[in-house]
Amino acid sequence: MKRIPYYLIQGISIFLGFTFWGAGMAKLYYEHQFFGWIGPVWLIDELAKHGLGLYGVFIAYCQIIIGYLLVTTRYKLLGSIMMIPMIGNILMVTISLNWKGTPLVLAFLLLLNFILLIQYKDFFRPLIDEGNTSYDVKKRPQRTRVGHLVWLAGLALQIISIQISYFNWVLACTVVIIGLILSYLSFKTDQNTSKITKL
After folding, report:
1. What's 144's DSSP letter?
2. What does the pLDDT look like over 165-181, one tens digit per residue?
3. Do the Cβ atoms of 3 and 69 come closer than 8 Å?
4. H-type helices in the chain, by residue range?
5. Is 31 left (phi over 0), alpha (psi -120 to 50) or beta?
6. How far is it between the farthest Cα atoms of the chain?
7. Per-residue pLDDT reduced to its tens digit, 81-100
8. Burial status of residue 23 (CB atoms within 10 A of its CB: 0-12, 13-18, 19 or more)
9. Helix, strand or coil, per DSSP, at residue 136
10. The whole model's pTM is what?
11. Torsion-angle region of residue 101: left (phi > 0), alpha (psi -120 to 50) or beta?
């Protein structure tokens, strides 16, 4: 099978990430004032009618974290693995509530997710064999502890921005952007930390 170009994989990761990260943020932001193309933003209120409001909040936070793993492209493999049970949960909710059309959209998003997973197929044989394998895992760029912490700080700002949105929407969006920039800078942090370590 011919390998999909790197820029296309990055594009799929960002698209999937933005889809779910934005959906989660829109559910939790004050008056749902966050940009996203997939909904419904009122899912928590709808599930609360069935005594499942907390489950709706859980789904929203899962969407934010899993989507953020993908939109920042740092943890594409982890995000795409976690995406499978999340989409499964959302699919069961939509089927249970008899929503039309949503399962088709989710099927398309799941297909994109499988395209991402195929690019990391060399990781799965060691998991299946529980580490005892003769299969080679393709070398990826080195990640550092400092880079992980920088990325995590960006994610923390996303969560903090939800509370800020109840007081000042512009400030909340500013915090979101700062968090995204910080998480994208984690790649640069890895490079700089690696250079210092080699000296």
Report:
1. -
2. 999 999 999 999 999 99
3. no
4. 6-28, 43-48, 53-71, 76-96, 102-118, 121-128, 145-164, 169-198
5. left
6. 61
7. 999 999 988 888 888 878 77
8. buried
9. coil
10. 0.88
11. left
The CA-CA-CA angle for residues 152, 4, 11, to 5°, reads 40
Report long-range pairs for 38-41 (Cβ below 8 Å, ≥24 apart): 38/105
- Please state the domain extents for the chain: 1-137, 141-199
Tokens at 101, concatenated:
């059309």
Supply the DSSP symbol for 5.
P
| CA dihedral sign, ordered 181, 187, 188, 192 | positive
3-class secondary structure, 100: coil
**CA angle, residues 128, 130, 133, in degrees to nearest 5:** 85
Q: Tokens standing for 20?
A: 């779910």
